[in-house]
Each structure stands twice: as C-alpha cells, then as structure tokens.
Amino acid sequence: MTRQTLTPASIALHRFGLGASADEVVVPDARRYLHAQFAVYEAVPAVLGQLPDGVALLASHLAVRREARRSMSEKPAPPLQPAEQDEVMASQQTSEPREASGRPQRSDAQRNYPQDIRALYRRSAQARMASAIQTQAPFIERMVHFWANHFCVSADNLQTLALAGAFERDAIRPHVLGRFADMLLAAEQHPAMLFYLNQSDSIGPGSPAAHRAQEQNASRRPGLNENLAREVMELHTLGVRSGYTQEDVTQFAKALTGWTVSGLVNVGGSEAMGFHFRPRWHEPGARIIIGKTFVQNGIAQGEAALAAFAEAPQTALHIATKLARHFAGDTPPPALVDRLAASFTSSGGDLATLYRALIDSPEAWVEYPMKFRSPWEWSVAVLRLLGPDALEQVQTANMLDQLGQPVWKPGSPAGWDDVAASWAAPDALRRRVEIAQRLASLAGDRIDARTAGEKLLPGSLEADTARHVARAESPATALALLLVSPDMLRR
Amino acid sequence: MTVAPFLDRRDFIARASLAVGAAFVPRMAFAAAPSDQRLVFIIQRGAADGLNILVPYADPAYRRLRGALAIDPAEAIRLDGTFALHPSLSGIGALHGEKQALFVHAIASPYRDRSHFDGQNVLETGGSAPYALRDGWLNRLASLLTGADEKAIALAPTIPLALRGAAMVSSYSPSRMPEPSDDLMLRVGELYAADEQLHPLWSSALDAKAIGEGSGGERGAAALGRLAAAFLTQPNGPRIAMLETGGWDTHTAQAGRLATQLKSLDVLVAALRTSMGEQWARTTVLITTEFGRTAGINGTGGTDHGTAAAAIVVGGSVLGGRVIADWPGLAAGQLHEGRDLKPTCDLGALIAGVAAETFALDPARVARRLFPDGMQRPLTGIVA
C-alpha cells in the first residue's frame, strides 16, 4: 500500500483531535498544542446548556402515563417496565385520538411526550455535533466521545432516548479531565444507566421489600437483576476474563440492590426523578466480591465495591488497552499499554495524567495513519472542514443513521467497536460517498477543494488525492472526492 | 485480502441476460457445477431464550421454573412428545410438518462464561476460547468453495466477524440516500485504485449495489429475506449469506418481546423460502445464538444470561421433522451451575455437519478447517 506520511501537525489535528477546521492553527510544537487544550475545555458549552432537561421531560411522561393507568383501573400502577420498545410503537399508532373505539380521548400532553422525547434526542445529537465542531479543545472533546462510548447507554427505548444526551453531559463531560472513579460513580448512578441495564427495579430477594411482597402474596415476586452488575465488571471496570466469577457478579448485584431512580412509584407525584437509594430494597448482609469483603450496609456497599474495582490493576489494564487502541492502532503496542496502565495506577486514575502520558508516547505519533475513522469520526471531520454553515443543513441523527452508526445507539452496552474491520466495509463506504456528494453539492463553490486539501492535512496530503481533486469536473465533485479521499477516511 | 473480479453494471446486465437464455438449456449443464447449494447463517445476537423457543413442555420442572413466562403447551406447536415450538413460529412449524425443519436443543459452543461479546466471538470465530482466532468460520468455509465469483455476502452495512477473513466477502444493505452521479462513482473508483484496502471494498460495493437495487430496497424482516434471496439466486452470485438479528437479550418484559422477535424471524424465513423459488430445494438455513438464558426467571419479568440454547435448521434438503436432543433435564440437580440448561450437544459439531453436508464436502475436513482447535464429531444426517 502506498502509505501516506503524516506530519506531527496532521497527527495532532486528526488522530488526537477531531479533524481540521477552517480557523484552526496548530502551533509549531504539536505536543504543546495538545497540552494547551486541557485549560480551554468547556464541560458545559452553551450549545449543550441550552437543551431542555431530558430527566424532567421523561418524569412528566411517566407521571402522565401513571395517572392515565390509575384513572382507567382501580389497580395500582404496575412498576415501570424498562423496555419501552412496544410503547414507542404503540404511541405512534395511537397518535390520533380514537373516539370510534369508545376509549377516552387522550390528553394533548400525554399524546405528545413520546414525540417530544424523540425530538429532544435529535436536538441533543445535533448539539453534540455542534459542540464537536465549535470546541477549542478537540482532543478533550474526542475523549468525551471515547468515555461516552465506554460507559454507553444505548438509546433504544423512550427512557434512554430521553436521557442519552443528559447522561453524556452530566455524567461524562464534568469528569473527562478528573478521576476515573468519579466518572464511574456518576455513570452508574445516572438514571439513564439505571434504566438501561435494568438496575432500577432490582430488589434483594432477602430484603424487607421482598419479604413484604411475599406476605402479601403479590403476583410478581420481586427479585434480583444482575445486568448492571455484570456489565460494570465486564465492560466498565475490570474487563472480561479478568478473573471474576459468576458468584462475584451475583454478590455485586446484591450489593447494588436499592440503587434505583426516584419518582417512579406512586408517592403523590411530588418526588423529583433522579438517583435514589431505597434501603428496603437492599439485600442485607456483608459480601465477598473479587476476594474483598464488603461489610458496609446500604448504599455504601455498592459504592465501596465500585471504588475497589476502580483501583484494581485489571481495570488499569482494561482502560489502558482501549485508550491505546484508540490512538495507536487496532492492535495496540504492549509497551504503550503497559505505560498507560502504570500511569493510570500511579496517578490514582487521574485522567488528565493519563492523557499526558499518551501524548508523550512515541507510539501515538507513528507517521502513517493508524486508524480507520468510524462514521461518527468521519462525519465530525467532514463537518469541521465544511464549517458551521454546513451543520445547519444537516440533521446529525439522520446522517449517522444512514452511515450505520446512529448517535448513542450502538445497540449493546459494549458500545461501538474501535477496529477498522467494523467500519471498512463495501456498503459503509458507498454511503460515505453518497453523503459526501450531498454535502458537497450543498456547499456549492463556497469551498475550493484544491486549497482546502492542503489546509486540511498540513504537509501530508497524498499527491494522488491532490491530482484527482484538481482534475474533477466541478467544484462539488472535487469537494466530494476530498471528503471521501483515503486521507479523510483514516487518521 | 484477495481482490474479487470487478463486475461493473454493464457487465452485470450482460451476465444476467445470459442467465435468462440459460433457462432454456437443459439443467444438467449447471447441475454439474460445484457449489450449486446455498447456506444462510442467521445469527441471533443477545442470547436467545432456547427454553421458550423450543419448549420442553413434558419436563415437569419447566412450568415451575418459568412461572408466568412458561409457554402454554396448548398454544404452542407440538413437535413431538417432549418439545413444542413457540406459537409465533407458525411458518417454521409448517416447515416442520413438511419435514424441512430440524431443531437441536441443549446445544452450546465451548464458551462457558456469560459475556455476549465473548460468546459471540467464540460462536463467530469457531475458536475454543474468545479471541483465540482472528477470522470467522463462515469465511473459512467460503474459502473451501469453488465455482462462484463472490462466494459470500453479509446483508449488513459492515461485515460481521463470522464472515471476516482472507476470502473476499461482499456486503449490502438498502440505502435511503439519493444516488451519487456516475461520474463521481467512477472518479472515486480511480481515487481508490492504488489503495489496497479501499479498492476491493469499493469494487465489491458496486457489485452489490447493482444486484440489491433489483430487489425493491425496503426494510423489515420480509424485505431482508427477499434481499438475501435476490443475491443467492444470482447464477454466479454468492453461495453463502449471513443475516444478523438483534434484540434477544430479554432481561425484562420477555413475554411480549420474545413473541415479537420470533414473529420477525418467522417472517424472514418465510420470505426467504418464497423468494428462493426452486433454489429453496438446494438451500439450508442455520439459526443460532451465542448462548442461552437462565432456566428460571429473574425478578423483572425476564431471564438472565445462561448456557445451553436451541438451534434451528430449515431448508429444502434438510432431513427435518424432528428434534435432536440428549435432554439433560431441568430438575434442580440437573442444571449447569445450578441455574442454566446443561449443554449436551456441541454447536460446532452442528455447524460443521450442516456446512459439510450442504456443500457435499468431507465432514472431517470441514470440521478441521472451521474448528481448528478441535470439537466433537460433526453431526451428520442433517442435510440430504
């Protein structure tokens, strides 16, 4: 393969950053340019601060639904079913009042919440893209995307659709330069995660609430759901095959019982929605998890287990491997992984220290492209090149649907894959060409692809790309070719 | 990666019309061609619940373990004195009546932990442990075939692990975007000509686009079945197709979700059967998942990650109408680790047997190639 040679400035812009934007100037020292971003990163940029509150919107939707159920029958409202797939479809089907059926006509408010939640999701995706385009700290912004994918909540139902944007803004962004343990706790206690991995109604089988249900002969016996516990250990901290057992998962699931979301049960509707610990749901007793004993009672037990996971050497290795893979190639060099793991451990999981160790590692500066851009990365790079005008003509959520990486919807708690084999495929490539043509035709002759190319990849544009761009039949075709050039597909 | 012969649109039309002419030529000329058979692999990502798909209604522990989630045998499709099929699978049930559907229960890969991602890795690579192998068993199977130009296709925007490897594989899924101009398509081809990674991908994308556009291009389970058939019925098209289904991870509200999932699967298989036309007689469809779910229900109206599951094989030459199961039982002492259905059949043995018999290859050779880490003896007598 003809290998493109990248200058340090191109590596800083593309591999570390999110692609070149029109007004971006890399200082002569590329490492200093990256270090300088730590100070200018904004945890809540204006474009995210303006978004409606997804938590409040979802709470209103759930409250209206509970009220409707109560008025239709004398039975108490059933506990929330986290899988809302059916409801999403049902609410679409019944978006018009059905007087003919004889059922009571639904109120406007109730009819519109699912629609509003889907609109909020699209707005949040658009704001995520706007932030990625406007940021003065594209490397740190890339780390936000990295961690949101690491602690992914897939927006596959109404709850997660409403909360995915809030999750990234409130649980990930404030901690991206802080401590891993703090981000971990914020992520696991966010309502989005508690809903997504079914923690919100996991009840200890020996808890007071379970005993009460048994005495009352309740039709559905409450019990344990080990989904969150397993994924915390497998995906968020220790990593799969790192030595924990099924018994560790079960014990950790018991430690987490009582971790739920407030405002879900009938208490007069006054309780605000948010993380909530219900002592009566908690499984009593001490437990042993990965060889450590947790004697704490109540909420402190799960928190102590999370803190222990955050400090475990397996977690350092797991995080170091994923970070190294994101910057130094699909098969990360072991020396880099070891160095990052050591930095993670010695700094007590301080993420800024970890990123500095990465920037100072030669393996991250290999002078030819190491990564095939995912659809999200490619879209951001394209829109940064085309500028804010182009973003106004784009629906980010639709565009990423088309490209095969719908925003916040990897469909699995493992998040999106970070290897070329997942993204470099015939059909995926064709879609990038289709979208590039559309965006290029919208840009018209606003951008001259011949000069944009050199600015995009300072000192690194492939001669072949420059030649094909210069020969194109129209400015739009030239721009489309630049957008799908090998130079733009890799970093 | 080897480069597939480039097939542009004009060339494709020429070949297609040749095929129409060929319909008048006696079939013998084609019958002798190697790999005239088709294999469709449908993966159920997320651990499909074998105990509610292939219901062991005669096991007295089943009702007790499944409680509110237990399938009523009166509503299910009875297969024999022990097992019944979930009521949503009426089309596959009808295939059972025609002796074209075969079911295997208590089946599992060698993987015994409960991670989806590792479980799917073992299922798709054919390794004995996660990440032991880098390429997929379906790709290695493609490399054993002769005859077709492009031996395999993924009906997905990207190529799933089972199909990744040395053999060139195509991929296609319908797009809703307006068409790029022919000029741009041509120039992109020139731009990628010297790129070892992008050139074959682009050639393959153009091939697949030409075929896929002929099949309607809608979405949904029936459309996916028709799309797969559009590729598999091409005279010189792929002989292997992989389709992905998700949504099987039913930790909560399982009853309704599983019924919907199975209905979609049933519709997909029915559309495939109809659209394959007379080629259905030479088609085998294998449906499997990475592992099963807990024997008992959890506290949230669902089931958690388990071990052994069920597999389904349908097709025109399947020796069907039966259930293969060395039933381990669901009583307390009979469960794996006290919670899951115990595996008594090796999934690799089924895969190797189905693959070998579908393409009339030596089962031992196929087993060595697909499962180089070793496995139980291939299950044979599955496909005529």
Structure description:
The complex is a heterodimer of chains A (491) and B (384). With 491 residues, chain A is an all-alpha fold. Chain A has helices at residues 8-16, 30-35, 37-40, 46-49, 54-72, 85-93, 108-134, 138-150, 158-172, 180-188, 191-196, 208-215, 227-236, 246-256, 299-311, 313-328, 334-346, 351-359, 375-386, 388-392, 396-403, 420-423, 426-443, 449-456, 463-471, 475-483, 486-489, and strands at residues 259-261, 275-277, 287-289, 292-294. Chain A has a two-stranded antiparallel ribbon. Chain A has a two-stranded antiparallel sheet with strand order 3-4. In chain A, a hairpin with a 2-residue loop joins strand 3 and strand 4 (292-294). The longest helix of chain A is centred in the N-terminal third of the chain and has 27 residues, at 108-134. The model of chain A is unreliable at 76-105 (pLDDT under 50). Chain B has 13 helices and twelve strands. In chain B, the strands form two sheets. In chain B, strands 1, 5, 6, 7, 8, 9, 10, 11 and 12 form a nine-stranded mixed sheet that branches. A three-stranded antiparallel sheet of chain B has the order 2-4-3. The longest helix of chain B has 23 residues, at 254-276. Chain B is globular, with a radius of gyration of 21 Å. Chains A and B meet through helix 13, helix 22, helix 23, helix 25 and helix 26 of A and helix 6, strand 7, helix 8, helix 9 and helix 11 of B.
What is the gist of this entry?
The complex is a heterodimer of chains A (about 500) and B (about 375). Chain A has about 500 residues and is mainly α. Chain A contains 27 helices and 4 strands.
- How many helices of chain B in DSSP terms? 13
Q: Give the helix/strand class of chain B.
A: alpha/beta
- Approximate strand percentage of chain A: under 5%
Largest sheet of chain A: 2 strands, antiparallel
Give the strand order of the largest sheet of chain A, numbering strands 1, 2, ... along the chain.
1-2
Radius of gyration of chain A: 25 Å
Could you tell me the radius of gyration of chain B in angstroms? Answer: 21 Å
**Arithmetic mean pLDDT of chain B:** 85
* Beta-strand content bin of chain B: 5-15%
Rough outline of chain B = globular
Q: Please report the number of helical segments of chain A.
A: 27
In total, the number of strands of chain A is 4
Shape of chain A: globular
The percentage helix of chain B is: 25-40%
